[in-house]
C-alpha cells in the first residue's frame, strides 16, 4: 500500500515538474515539427507538456507557419492555467489594448453612489478625452441619476412538432404550467430563477418559447442554457403522454436574442436594462458645452432619432458602442455583447430652465463574477470600480449607464457647438 501511495505521489510530482519546467529550444523545435507533420494536435499540448510550455510551443508553431516573429504577444502577466480552463483554447499569448480612465464621475444610483474612475480600454484617440469631459460636466451638475429598470437573461429553443395543432397544444401547456416548468428549470442552478416564459411564438409547426431568468451577478448565458435543456426534456415527456411527439431542434432558436441587434430586446430588455439621466441649467450648458439646450435638442432629434429612423437603426443614439466596448474590454465582459449594448435611446429635452438629458440602455448583458471577469487585468479594473465579485452587478450596471451618459452628452455638445472635427484633429490624429 505504501509503495502504491508513493508511486502516486511521485506521479503527481512528476506531472507538476513537467508543467513548470521550462521547455528547451531543441524540444520546442522537435514538437513544432511534429505539429507541422500532424503527428500531434495543438490542443493536446496542454496535457503533454503543461499549460505554460504549450503556450510557448504553439506560439513558435504559429511563427513557423506565418513567417512572423511575435515579439510582443508572448509578454504578459496572466496565469495561463485558469485562463485555458475557463476562457481560451489554443492560447499563444495575449493582446494588449491601451487602458486609460475617465473621471471622476459622480453617480447617484440605487446601488452605485459616489465618485468613480472609469477604466476604458480602447485604441480610438479622443474617445477617453470626450468621455472624461462628459464625466466632468455631469459631476459639476451634481452627478447622474441611474437606475436598473430590468434584469433578465433569456434562452429560446426551437421545438418542432408535427402540425400547427400540436404546436398550439404545446404553447398552451407551457402557458398553463409555469410552476412546473420553473421547478424543473431551477433544479439545475442555485442562482438562476425563472421569471416568465414570454413570448411563446409559433411559426408554422415550430414553437419558440422565450425562457427569461434572473442570474444573480453572473451574465448567466451558460446557466440558462443548461436550465432550458432540462425544461425541453420535461416538455418532450409531457407531450409524449398526450400522444404528441415533439423534438428540440436547437437550444437556441435566435429568439433569445443573443449577440444580435433585435427589436424584442429593445422593447422587452435583456441583461441589465438601465436608465441614466442628468439635468443641466442653461448657464451650465453655455459654460461647459459652449452651446445651448435648444441646439443640443435639435441635434439629438435630427441625428439620433430621425437619422436613425430613416435607416431603420435599432440604436437611436450617438455612440453607445464606443463606451460599452471600451468598458467591456477593460472589465472582462463578453465583447460580442457590445452589439446588444449599443442599442438604446438618447433623450435631449429643452426645458424652460435648462436641459434634461438621458440614456436608456435596454439590453446590457454584464457580470461581476465568472467569464472574463476572472482574468487578472480585468479583475483589477472591476476592483477599481468597487464592483468585483458577488453583489455588485447592479452597481456596475448603474456605473456603465452613467459612463454612456457622459459619452453621449459630450458628443452631443461637441456636435451642437461644431467642435467634433477639431477634437479628432487634435487628439485622434
UniProtKB/TrEMBL annotation:
Q: In which pathway does it act?
A: Metabolic intermediate biosynthesis; (R)-mevalonate biosynthesis; (R)-mevalonate from acetyl-CoA: step 3/3
Q: What is its EC number?
A: 1.1.1.34
Print the keywords alphabetically. Answer: NADP, Oxidoreductase
Whose protein is this, by species? Methanococcus voltae (strain ATCC BAA-1334 / A3)
InterPro entries attached to this UniProt entry: HMG_CoA_Rdtase (IPR002202), HMG_CoA_Rdtase_cat_sf (IPR023074), HMG_CoA_Rdtase_CS (IPR023076), HMG_CoA_Rdtase_eu_arc (IPR004554), HMG_CoA_Rdtase_N (IPR023282), HMG_CoA_Rdtase_NAD(P)-bd_sf (IPR009023), HMG_CoA_Rdtase_sub-bd_dom_sf (IPR009029)
Its biological function? Converts HMG-CoA to mevalonate.
Name of this protein: 3-hydroxy-3-methylglutaryl coenzyme A reductase
GO BP annotations, alphabetical order: coenzyme A metabolic process; isoprenoid biosynthetic process; sterol biosynthetic process
The record's annotation in Pfam families points to:
HMG-CoA_red
Note the coiled coil stretches, chain numbering: none
* Entry's Gene Ontology molecular function annotations: hydroxymethylglutaryl-CoA reductase (NADPH) activity
Catalysed reaction, written as an equation = (R)-mevalonate + 2 NADP(+) + CoA = (3S)-3-hydroxy-3-methylglutaryl-CoA + 2 NADPH + 2 H(+)
Q: What family does the database annotate?
A: Belongs to the HMG-CoA reductase family.
Amino acid at each position: 500500500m505504501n509503495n502504491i501511495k508513493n508511486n502516486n505521489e511521485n506521479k503527481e510530482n512528476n506531472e507538476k515538474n513537467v508543467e513548470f519546467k521550462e521547455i528547451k529550444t531543441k524540444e520546442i523545435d522537435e514538437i513544432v515539427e511534429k505539429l507541422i507533420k500532424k503527428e500531434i494536435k495543438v490542443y493536446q499540448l496542454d496535457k503533454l507538456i503543461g499549460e505554460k510550455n504549450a503556450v510557448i510551443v504553439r506560439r513558435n508553431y504559429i511563427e513557423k507557419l506565418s513567417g512572423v516573429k511575435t515579439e510582443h504577444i508572448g509578454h504578459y502577466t496572466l496565469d495561463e492555467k485558469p485562463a485555458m480552463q475557463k476562457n481560451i483554447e489554443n492560447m499563444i499569448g495575449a493582446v494588449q489594448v491601451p487602458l486609460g480612465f475617465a473621471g471622476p464621475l459622480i453617480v447617484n444610483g440605487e446601488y452605485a453612489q459616489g465618485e468613480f474612475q472609469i477604466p476604458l480600454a480602447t485604441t480610438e484617440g479622443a474617445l477617453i478625452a470626450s468621455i472624461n469631459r462628459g464625466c466632468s460636466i455631469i459631476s459639476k451638475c451634481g452627478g447622474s441619476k441611474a437606475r436598473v429598470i430590468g434584469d433578465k437573461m433569456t434562452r429560446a429553443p426551437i421545438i418542432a412538432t408535427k402540425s400547427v395543432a400540436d404546436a398550439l397544444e404545446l404553447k398552451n401547456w407551457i402557458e398553463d404550467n409555469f410552476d412546473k416548468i420553473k421547478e424543473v428549470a431551477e433544479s439545475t442552478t442555485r442562482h438562476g430563477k425563472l421569471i416568465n416564459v414570454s413570448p411563446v411564438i409559433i411559426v408554422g409547426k415550430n414553437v419558440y418559447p422565450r425562457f427569461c431568468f434572473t442570474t444573480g451577478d453572473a451574465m448567466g448565458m451558460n446557466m440558462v442554457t443548461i436550465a432550458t435543456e432540462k425544461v425541453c426534456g420535461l416538455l418532450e415527456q409531457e407531450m409524449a403522454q398526450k400522444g404528441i411527439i415533439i423534438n428540440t431542434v436547437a437550444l437556441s432558436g435566435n429568439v433569445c436574442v443573443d449577440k444580435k441587434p433585435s427589436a424584442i430586446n429593445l422593447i422587452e430588455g435583456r441583461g441589465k436594462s438601465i436608465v441614466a439621466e442628468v439635468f443641466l441649467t442653461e448657464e451650465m450648458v453655455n459654460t461647459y458645452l459652449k452651446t445651448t439646450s435648444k441646439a443640443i435638442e435639435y441635434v439629438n432629434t435630427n441625428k439620433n432619432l430621425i437619422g436613425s429612423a430613416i435607416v431603420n437603426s435599432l440604436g437611436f443614439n450617438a455612440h453607445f458602442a464606443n463606451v460599452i466596448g471600451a468598458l467591456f474590454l477593460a472589465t472582462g465582459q463578453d465583447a460580442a455583447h457590445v452589439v446588444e449594448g449599443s442599442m438604446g435611446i438618447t433623450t435631449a429635452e429643452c426645458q424652460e430652465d435648462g436641459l434634461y438629458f438621458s440614456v436608456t440602455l435596454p439590453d446590457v448583458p454584464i457580470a461581476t463574477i465568472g467569464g472574463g471577469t476572472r482574468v487578472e487585468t480585468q479583475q483589477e479594473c472591476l476592483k477599481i470600480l468597487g464592483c468585483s465579485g458577488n453583489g455588485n452587478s447592479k452597481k456596475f450596471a448603474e456605473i456603465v449607464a452613467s459612463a454612456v451618459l457622459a459619452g453621449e452628452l459630450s458628443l452631443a455638445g461637441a456636435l451642437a457647438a461644431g467642435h467634433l472635427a477639431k477634437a479628432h484633429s487634435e487628439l485622434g490624429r
